[in-house]
Amino acid sequence: MRYFDGILNGLKNKLQVTVSLRFLLIVPFIIQVSLAVSLIGYISFINGQTTVNDLVTQLMNKTSGLVNQHLNSYLAVPTQLNQMNVDAVQAGILNLQNLEVSGKYLWRQMQIYANLGYSGYMLPNGQGAGTGNYTDRKLKTLEIFSVAVEGVSKIDSYAMDNEGNKSDLLYSYNYKGLEQSWYTNTVKAGHPIWSGVHPWSGAFNSGSIAASANYPVYNNNNELMAVFGVDLLLSNISNFLNDIHVSKNGVIFIIERNGLLVANSGDTYPYKFLNGQTDRLAATDSSDTLIQATANYLQQQLGNLEEIQSPQQILFDFQGNAEFVKITPWRDKLGLDWLVVFSVPESDFMAQIQANNRNTIFLCLGTVVVVFLIGIYTSARITKPILDLSAASELIADGNLNKSVDVQGIYELKTLGDSFNHMAQQLQESFTAFATVNQNLEKTNTKLEARTLELQDTIEELHQTQAQIVQSEKMSALGEMVAGIAHEINNPVNFIHGNVAHVEEYTHDLLSLTQLYQDYFPKPPEEITEKLNTIDFEFLQQDLTKVISSMKLGTTRIQQIVLSLRNFSRLDEAEVKAVDIHEGINSTLVILNHRIKSQPDGARIEVIKNYGDLPLIDCYAGQLNQVFMNLLNNAIDALEERDKLRSPDEIKANPSTITISTLHKNGWISIHIADNGFGIEQKDKSRVFNPFFTTKEVGRGTGLGLSISYQIVTQKHGGKLYFQSIPGEGTDFVIQVPVNRSQLNLRTKIN
After folding, report:
1. Which domain holds residue 257?
2. Which of 5, 109, 309, 679 has the highest local Cβ count within 10 Å?
3. Are 308 and 325 in contact (CB under 8 A)?
4. Concatenated DSSP letters of 228-261
5. Model pTM score
6. 595 vs 400, which has greater pLDDT?
7. Which of 233, 259, 286 is where one domain is finished?
8. Are residues 143 and 169 in the same domain?
9. The domain spanning residue 696 has which CATH number?
10. What gap in Å lies between CA 710 and CA 719, rounded to an integer?
11. What range(s) does the Histidine kinase domain occupy (predicted)?
């Protein structure tokens, strides 16, 4: 056993290597810095790659949703028009035998929908009427199929004046409508269908493609009366794809399952136009090289496009660059079956990250060089005084107790040198040495106590900073969510609100037309009379206008709520800006309206506004809105707690109220938010603005709202936030902020 111990001790002594202090100061420090910088650079690169992949996926998913939404709304127009026309025929409003009147009816529809190429109908005998949209001439014509012989219809095409009257006969031509696929396929199907995408060109068009939606209408004996058809121009889809801007060099295109283009972004057309004729174009033949390469890759890798039934995301190489591709199937219930393809170059997202990586490498190298130079300088400044102390120590060890050292430059080493000199002196004066040691201990204790107080202050500041960060993150997330929701709601509401006026106008026209029919034909056939009685036509006339008015009122209300949400979020107003305080208060009240209305036992909170004449003030609008939200939420919570403990009679006798008063005086704005709740108890008044203090039950409050509000008002706006509360009667919070921006900036700097 002793033998092995000897061997271990020998190895230990051999492994012990004496190194210089300068080496220990420079080399480990440089190694640590190099490892840290390298690790940070590597993590930055990996995070960049992950971020690009996540960003591309999110971008494609969001863009896919936008395209699908646009296709659903845009392609719904012809089917809705067909349904409306069939309903008009079945209701007896539209007489298909009167070609002139029916044609003018369709012509008026064409004035509203600019993207229609053609709208018309054909009777089983080849007669019919329609209206064409020739965009190059800005001309919408009326066409009458007045004569049909052996399946060949003679069509007269007329120009129309602004009043909807025929002005000039443009031309006449023969048309075998009963043999056309749009007519025969629809009759064969017996229900509404799309007859597919086809070229759209003519005497006054430079070329386009269109999708034809068709609808057969039958009488009560299930006999075919006519086939309605609407050609929808698809150029708007390409325009929409251009406006999306997926990336700098990315493209979006839509193809049918047979590979033919329907629409695409970019400067190229999804069709060929030559010698006055329009031809469909396959995606593999597109003049856009990225579209062509993507389509070729899809056919090579996926084979039959009919087999793509769910969204797929792939990556392929194009001209030495990686391309992200996403294919999303889109279908509708009437038979359209398309593929929406997105192709985005990885380089569009990696350019900045690669530049950042290069900058990171240069910064790492520069950091290592600077650290090396600083290490050399620092080691020289540290080792020289230590060597002097070492030499003096050797002299004292030899008996020279009068030796002292003079250390300058570094505070800690200077203190060490002074201590060394004191030690040498105290070796000669033992009693003085004990007194000096005690005195140093007392100084050390004093320093420790002072340091402890500083640490306590730092911890308190960290608590406040933590509270402010938590609340800021919550409000930032809330603002982003509110702005996103407001944006998403605003588009469909504007669409609905814009169309309600047209619906109201059409309803009035239809009711007027019905009244004219009743005036000229007071005794309609028995079948029509029964139908009128069945649907209670008189009630329908009265109630329809009320329903439309209610719809208009409802959409207006939604628009007001959306505006309030956007005003409250104010994500784009992070800097000081002149704002209307009343607008911020009203927006906050709209957001809290659901809490103000829905109280226990059917009671509700009454909000009383005593607004003064306020000027615009310079402030951080979003942060002040946060203060209003916190104070109003606390007031509502207090009133809800009080109403839970009261009977319905007590609530009725003394209803819950929140009174908001504003005043401008001597360059200051005062805002009072008062409630008639239980008030604040005397023992809690001194702790109201402390972080994490709350009187609410667990799970309902964090105690950060008033603390953050106090910092926003006092530190960010140089104002005051205080309250007056009488237990059992209520609480009045007062916000005072200056009007002038220079005053706000000055106070902010002081704080």
Report:
1. 237-345
2. 679
3. no
4. EEEEEE-HHHHHHHHHH--SSS-EEEEEETTSBE
5. 0.46
6. 595
7. 233
8. yes
9. 3.30.565.10
10. 9
11. 484-741
